[in-house]
């Protein structure tokens, strides 16, 4: 797992370069947003069960076929797997928020996930919608209006949405 600093230093070390202006700016941004990222993570962590409950309720009300007998979230086992997956997305998003870097999402969540989903017929589009709802529920419930804070919270969720939403060639 990499945070903002290790990811920049690793990159520069590969070519044996000193940190230049761009690298220093990125690292400086990591420190400048530090307190904000910690506070946002704290706020999110106080209400994780609520966010999962609310996002899943909205997902199943918008896509009720998921929990009908032919749906992928039908049977309590699969329903539970779905809630658990949403928990994974939320928990890892908070790690990425603290790290100021999305690398942990690629490494521990997204790598190979699409293949797993495809082999189990877990539908990708509603999963993407679930992640999107999770993000919206957090922003709305915590009444985040400041654009910088919003961007910080959205970044890891948008990264997962983009990665899962990409078409395989
Ligand atoms: C299953 N979700 C799985 C599986 C994995 C993950 C590996 C297969 C193994 C298992 O059932 O536990 C996901 N595992 C992860 C992730 C990580 C991990 C992300 C990283 C930490 O270790 N079905 C739907 C909804 C959606 C859904 C749209 C919820 C949003 O219809 C999820 N995932 C879902 C379901 C299963 C699943 C229902 C079980 C599928 C099956 O066994 O038939």
UniProtKB/TrEMBL annotation:
GO terms under biological process: photosynthesis
Query: How does this protein lie in the membrane?
Result: Peripheral membrane protein
What CDD domains does this protein map onto? APC_beta
Listed InterPro entries: Allophycocyanin_b, Globin-like_sf, Phycobilisome_asu/bsu, Phycobilisome_asu/bsu_sf
Q: Which residues carry this modification: N4-methylasparagine?
A: 72
A GO CC annotation given for this chain:
chloroplast thylakoid membrane
**Pfam families found in the cross-reference section:** Phycobilisome
Q: Where in the cell is it found?
A: Plastid, Chloroplast thylakoid membrane
Q: Which UniProt keywords apply?
A: Antenna complex, Bile pigment, Chloroplast, Chromophore, Electron transport, Membrane, Methylation, Photosynthesis, Phycobilisome, Plastid, Thylakoid, Transport
Is the Plastid keyword given for this protein? yes
Q: Which residues bind (2R,3E)-phycocyanobilin?
A: 72, 77, 82
**Source domain of life:** Eukaryota
Q: Which PANTHER family match?
A: ALLOPHYCOCYANIN BETA CHAIN, PHYCOBILISOME 32.1 KDA LINKER POLYPEPTIDE, PHYCOCYANIN-ASSOCIATED, ROD 2-RELATED
The family line of this record is: Belongs to the phycobiliprotein family.
This one is known as Allophycocyanin beta 18 subunit
Q: Which organism is it from?
A: Compsopogon caeruleus
């Amino acid at each position: 797992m990499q945070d903002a600093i290790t990811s920049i230093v690793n990159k520069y070390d590969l070519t044996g370069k000193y940190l230049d202006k761009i690298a220093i700016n990125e690292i400086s941004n990591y420190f400048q947003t530090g307190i904000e990222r910690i506070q946002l993570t704290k706020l999110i962590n106080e209400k994780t069960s609520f966010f999962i409950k609310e996002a899943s309720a909205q997902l199943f009300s918008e896509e009720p076929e998921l929990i009908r007998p032919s749906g992928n979230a039908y049977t309590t086992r699969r329903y539970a797997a779905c809630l658990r997956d949403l928990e994974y997305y939320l928990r890892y998003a908070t790690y990425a928020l603290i790290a100021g870097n999305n690398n942990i999402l690629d490494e521990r969540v997204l790598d190979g996930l699409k293949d797993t989903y495809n082999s189990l017929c877990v539908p990708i589009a509603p999963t993407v919608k679930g992640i999107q709802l999770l993000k919206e529920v957090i922003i709305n419930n915590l009444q985040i209006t400041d654009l910088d804070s919003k961007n910080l919270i959205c970044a890891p969720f948008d990264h997962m949405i983009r990665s899962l939403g990409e078409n395989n060639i």
